[in-house]
Amino acid sequence: MTFHQEDHKLLMIPGPIEVADDVLYANAHAAVAHVSPQFVPVFGEVLQMLRKTVDAPSAQPIVVAGSGTMGWDMISLNVLQPGDDVLVLTTGYFGDAFADALRTYGVQVEQLRAPVGGRPGPDEIRAKLESKKFRAITITQVDTSTAVLSDIKAVSELVHQVSPETLVVVDGVCSVASEEIHMDAWGIDVIMTASQKGLGCPPGLCIVMAGPRAIQALESRKSPATYYLNWNRWIPVMKSYEAGTPIYFGTPPTNLIYALHQSLKTITEGPVSLQERYKMHREASKKVKDTIRSLGLKQLVSEELQASNGASNSMTAVCYPDGLGAADILPKMAQRDIVFGAGLLKDYKDKYFRIGHMGH
Amino acid sequence: MTFHQEDHKLLMIPGPIEVADDVLYANAHAAVAHVSPQFVPVFGEVLQMLRKTVDAPSAQPIVVAGSGTMGWDMISLNVLQPGDDVLVLTTGYFGDAFADALRTYGVQVEQLRAPVGGRPGPDEIRAKLESKKFRAITITQVDTSTAVLSDIKAVSELVHQVSPETLVVVDGVCSVASEEIHMDAWGIDVIMTASQKGLGCPPGLCIVMAGPRAIQALESRKSPATYYLNWNRWIPVMKSYEAGTPIYFGTPPTNLIYALHQSLKTITEGPVSLQERYKMHREASKKVKDTIRSLGLKQLVSEELQASNGASNSMTAVCYPDGLGAADILPKMAQRDIVFGAGLLKDYKDKYFRIGHMGH
Fold first, then answer.
1. A8 vs B30, B64, B202: nearest CB
2. Does B146 lie in the same domain as B207?
3. pLDDT for the residue B335
4. Exposure winner among A147, A201, A318, B241, fewest CB in 10 A?
5. Could you say which residues bind substrate here (chains A, B) (predicted)?
6. Domain coverage including residue B351
7. ipTM for the complex?
8. What CATH number does the domain containing A165 carry?
9. Gap from B264 CA to chain A (nearest CA, Å)
10. pLDDT in tens, A115-159
11. CB pair distance less than 8 Å for A206 and B249
């Protein structure tokens, strides 16, 4: 049996990312019954390995067919309730979208928005936290639209100091397994992510890690008014797969679970430790950013943030040189079989492009 | 480049089903950008071919990462509203589950439930329809828990005659591309299905076809209170991919879309026409059922229904002989590398097993 990818353009967008051959091969696994003795331990091990990717022995991982977007709905419905006050730190498109999703479910949202390329500072965050009792704060670790990296550790410490009852929710779609995170040690209550970024898988899985306080929030309330997105249905399914005695709610996406299993094995048990993986991302990122600077190009992330570890190590947002735009650069790279991402941020999308450099 | 599946047990459960080599190979496609010129037409063609599988030139297909279960939520939220009266024809577990999902969203459900192995008759259905103005009726074409096949054409005709404003909603998860259906000609307003049954793909895609009256129901109301499941967000995305100018809401599950594309090509353009495909399913089913009878075994579907095309052509539910149970039969088949499905119906699950015979 041989397997190798066909020749293809090198995909360097901030997700989906290039997928390793062994992961693609796992995605082509022959059909298995979702409750069979072959499949059940594979799903169980996926859950165990996911805890390691965010350093959270205490968390309940929830893996459901869906896109990353669905994580916002799950958190809005299961951890929060209509009328809850939530502070959304916004560093780009994805902070705004998270806020939209929360509002859809009747959550009272206040956004603390940084200028493009910046992030809200500790004094602003402290003042907000002191102004009102927020049920939760949300932080996008890497906003894929700007490449701004939030300082999750510092923000979470601040929250625990000023407003310890406030739940800390992290959107880690563009960062898990690329940017350092320690869910338990840093006091994070929920991390949501997806399969197609740092986890190095094809897209199609929504992944959420729920810490003890998030589970408590769910358990202390009336069951959420949703069928497919209800954690009261999914958590028993996850526990049943981990215990080896599967119960049915919806058919799990078996092939993607095989693919994620393969990818997580490399991430958590491969020759490169997670710490070394983070370091390699930092080094690769530094090379890209040094090159960008040496070409005289600017980044979307502010100079100030760049100097204080505020630029993502998983991607880079590069401003086009004066007088040039997407039409001048992206097709030329495509001719060289390299695909970059166009700008995503409203009003700015013609002013920059995005390079992904996460994963294998 | 060679690709073939490893040796594995023959999967004969009523979904997930065995997946053809070329479909698995497509599922291992190298990563592509979800808005790239390679991928966009693939997704567009998937939508066009899906219309053919249910013979519905007028329908809007919606394909979203999720399981079949999610289709119930989508219909509850987008086509219906809280307080709507809905008649659920129940021929097994999946009718009950659809009713549960509807109730979660405040829909007023009446269930017309047949005895196990039967289906509600036309007189009962007519009486119900005359007793109250129902906003919609739901019918499971094949209930995977019992193998009962509903007569969608006859029920839909009856509805259009007695209560023409009532929307006709079909759960086709276990039947699309295996059992005959003509969405437009039979006057069906919504069909929901999933990728892993008759469509011959790995699981992970929720597929809904919305007819003009369903779209009208959505458009004539306040936008549904959901973010990820809101068709007002997804329909423009679907239209944009079909038009070749993609817009972003959530990352589409690119590899599964490639796999579905390959499978749909075989179904809609392969050497076997859809009509011939239905015929082959009927013939294969007849062989299985004749063998079951010649062994002196009974089916869960009533004798009466068996005699009137009321048993599924995609699967068979077989009662264990007196004195024997799951422990006597299923492990012996597994030793011969054939996997059947255990019983699914509450109170009956130790009394029968299920053989899937849909797809390639």
1. B30
2. yes
3. 84
4. A318
5. 354
6. 274-356
7. 0.95
8. 3.40.640.10
9. 17
10. 999 999 999 999 999 999 999 999 999 999 999 999 999 999 999
11. no
Q: Which of A248, A268, A288 marks a domain boundary?
A: A268
Average pLDDT over residues B312-331: 90
Rg of chain B (C-alpha set): 20
**Contact call for A229 and B227, based on CB within 8 A:** no
User: What is the Cα–Cα distance from B52 to B358, expressed in whole angstroms?
Assistant: 18
A259-310 tens-digit pLDDT: 999 999 999 999 999 999 999 999 999 999 999 999 999 999 999 999 999 9
A354 is in an annotated binding site: yes
- Please give the Cα distance from A210 to A230 (Å, whole number): 13
Specify whether B304 is located in the same domain as B239: no
Per the annotation, where are the binding residues of B? 354
What's the per-residue H, E or C state across A325-354? CHHHHHHHHHHCCEECEECCCCCCCCCEEE
Known binding residues of B for substrate are 354
| Sheet hosting strand A315-319, strand order edge to edge | A315-319, A352-356, A341-342
* Residue B22 C-alpha, separation from nearest chain A C-alpha, in angstroms: 10
Residue type for position B321? P
CB-nearest partner of A203 from B194, B226, B252: B252
* CA dist., res. A334 & res. B95, Å (int): 50
CB distance B33–A13 less than 8 Å? yes
- For residue range A307-341, list pLDDT tens digits in order: 999 999 999 999 999 888 888 888 888 888 889 99
Per-residue pLDDT band at A171 (split at 50, 70, 90):
very high
Q: What is the mean pLDDT of residues A17-39?
A: 94
| Residue A151, min C-alpha distance to chain B (Å) | 25
User: B316 forms bridges with which residues in the sheet?
Assistant: B355
CB contact under 8 A, B203 and A254: yes
**φ, ψ for residue A162, nearest 5 deg:** -85, -35
